[in-house]
Amino acid sequence: MKLKSFIIAIFIAVGLTSCDKNSSINYIGVYEGDLPCNACDKVITKLTLSEDEHYALYEIYKIAGGDEIKRMTGEFEWTDHEGVFRINQPEAMPLFFKVEEHKLIRLNDQAKPFDQPENYTLTQVEDNSDTE
Predict the structure, then answer these.
(1) Mean pLDDT score, 117-129
(2) Which helix (H) or strand (E) holds 4?
(3) What's the short name of a Pfam family annotated to this entry (predicted)?
């Protein structure tokens, strides 16, 4: 009888944790890196993610005629793929990122990896998960 109760408890625990498959992912913090750009030299990127699923995105587009700066804040949302979230941009395609150990991988507009994903990596420079 104890074994049956134990098995039921395991199924309940697995069921509860699978409801939010991203709950165990440590994503909170600040990420930085230089991302490729088709219409410019590169995009210097800083992305801050908070526990309440808000973000702050700061980008500097390095263009020969002068830099273009873009700032966005808002809420991000998890997709159906584990560890992948979306930032919806006004009047532009959404941005997709995959959370990995101490880094974010920028994905294409179908939430798939680019060729050479190492070129699309933001590295975690600050971990804010312990701050309150």
Answers:
(1) 90
(2) helix 2-18
(3) NlpE
